[in-house]
Amino acid sequence: MRLPFRAVVITGASSGLGAALAQAYAGPQTALALLGRDRDRLNQTADACEAKSAEVRLGTIDVENAPAMAKWLT
Description:
By secondary structure, the protein is an alpha/beta fold. The chain is 41% helix and 22% strand.
């Protein structure tokens, strides 16, 4: 990846502030790693971000599970 490409990880992206941040960051040359507990709402956020040409990866991992988070992020 080279600038101006950017990567953003957002937890709580299935609703509220997390979903709003995801959509605010979404755009061309942006990779979003979105985490949330509600897969259906997370998919809705992802669809909105992909409509803005962002590359999206989803995860439904408990952020308190450090080993699972580390594995997913790598």
